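Quick one:
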Amino acid sequence: MKRLLVFVLCLFVAHTLIGQVKYKLPPKEVVDILDAAPTPFVLVSPDRNAMLLVDYKPHPSIAFISQPFLRIGGLRINPELGSRQRLTQFTSITVKGFDKNNTVKISAPGNSDIGMPSWSNDGKKIAFTRDVESGVELWTADPKSGKANAITNIRVNDILGSSFDWLADGRLVVQTQPMGRGQAPAAPKVPDGPIVDETYGKVSRMATFQDLLKNPHEENLFEHYATSQIALVNTKDGSSSLIGKPGMYASVSVSPDEKYLLVTKLRRPFSYRVPYFYFTRSVEVWDLKGSLVKTVADFPVSDEIPQQGVITGPRNVQWQPLHGAKLIWVEALDGGDPTKKVPQRENVMTLSAPFKGQPQEVTKIQHRFSGFDWTAQKDRIFYTESDRDRRWRTTYFVDLSNPTVLKKLFDLSANDSYKDPGRPMYEVKPSGERIMIQDGDWVYLTGRGSTDQGDRPFLDKFNLQTLQSERLFRSGENSVEQFSSFVKDSRSKIVTRYESKSEPPNYFVVDLQSNTRAAITEFKDPAPQLTGMKKELVKYKRADGVDLSGTLYLPPNYKQGTKLPCLVWAYPLEFSDAGTAGQVRGSPNSFTFLRGASPLFFVTQGYAVLMDATMPVIGDPETMNNTYVEQVVSSAKAAIDKLDEMGVIDRNRVGVSGHSYGAFMTANLLAHSDLFTAGLARSGAYNRTLTPFGFQSERRTFWEATETYMKMSPFTYAHKINEPLLMIHGEADNNSGTFPIQSQRLFEAIKGNGGTARLVILPFESHGYTARESNLHVIAEMLEWADKYVKNRVQVGTK
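Output:
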């Protein structure tokens, strides 16, 4: 009896939740690297004469991110500030000139959190926000002197999006907190009744969104915090005038002639099924007094959008540049349903001031619209369409005044990185219009320049009449150098961001004629202890002949022939053909800068890391997931075989890891193979029945492809996961489909089948992890798990 009692107690202890533990620290060298200052964000001025360097804390403290926040309407709101929840702390702003390399520090108050700054249209001022106890202040600064001033009579409201927009004369249109708003509605002590939902036979296949409204009290809270007052603010004297009445404004944009506003306004009824951007809403044109001029669109709650489809009615409504006040938008001709067979899917419509007549049809688009690009010539635009069936994208050049003549510019697979022509380079005019940089018939395109040896970013000059391109700049073979901007109006001097394996990113002025360069910044290596880390592109083939690749990292002191424990990090992607699936993306020549819970920290502890190992899932977009398991297992085997052949790893000590869909892959590889000794899965989804209306690129519902959903769910095969699995998940994960219950239920399933697993829930963290304490803890957990079950392998079972 005594022995039985001891056995029961041991069994109880082995299967009992450990409970809350204190945050762990990884080895000191890891802490030092993570704490190193990051490269600042860079914002080039509209006149292309200077840049803003914005310093920030990539990993604020857990105390910062654990400030109380509301999760309502698909948003996260800080009720104390009356703002969006902050996850990044911007700390200072510096202005760096291109020519004389002048440096000016903006005199923002110390010990305060500021927002990302914005240049005025003429580059003569900047504006930014500052969080204080009473709310969010608005500040402006002179980039030449560095002097900054607060506009003290307003508080900014950024709940529903961007909070301010520059006018040509230096004034700002700002969304502010209404005066006298009062306290937030108090929660009822006793509910008025149950929450009820009904359906009436309509098909409604929406994604599994998070942070949704749940009850009438949350509806009242949402309306309280989302309501703003639009104001016109004079940045010279700080005075302001109100535009219209308070309301829930999801977006506000000013017409090029600055006589009208385009406003998206939310109203009740709300929804408990979809986020705020699908709530009842209208798209309206106002004059600058706030009077309604035209209702362009009026939508009910949009919770019946076809799967992978779009809403019906006007969408992507925007001002057309180089017109005083002309709207342009698209409307679906197929009911928004991508499965319907129709000759054209979209209609392009326009409507001009004074907005009295009916909208005019400009042209029809064969496939789904995916974006406009605006040239510097009036009415001459690019539009891009996407063919869902072929996963193909085509860009046309059209004159909207004569839309019957189309010129096809680019026509390629959406997955073809090698043939990607790049994106047009834009400039902001003093009027605020954002149009392409253009010289006659020439525009400028920049892209990543993917090749079979890695990315070589480029700048091209492209002729709209002949469709011929001329290469102006291309990164060298042993570095990664990206075009950032022209210098002023010159086309012979450019600003680039240069980095190499051993040199951290810095900015240079490059003279294309003399091939000389001058440094603008001098950012130092934040982690010189990693300078000697070995890094190379590794290419290999899957059993079916598909080309695969990854970037192999080895410790600085690695000796040839030493077989190391290894971590494979991957994220599966879907492709229609093997050719594009096998393309190399990324570069082995980029600078390695470790941030967050990067798997590359394993290199500091004597591991080999195969980073971004390609795990393509190839086939007909309708059915490719039928062989998902077979394809990822085959890809994983090919990676291990290659590294084993190179003699750099011990194939009996290899772990696999990934985040989100990569975590899903990790669990599947443990369930369906014996290739790995352990797995480390972060923020994953493991039961596809909980995402029944599609996931990633899966187009079928659970009821249309039940066998595939079940086969792809590691939860279904939890009894076969007999390699140790570490699962980490943010307690407040806001990603569609990756509810924390996904990790909790897989953990329980593994436990119930006698497997080995550990579940770590990170307080206050979302789909990605922000706090310094959280990231250090995640690294510590991953290293401890891998050291036990990979490096110093502990055998726990075989299939």
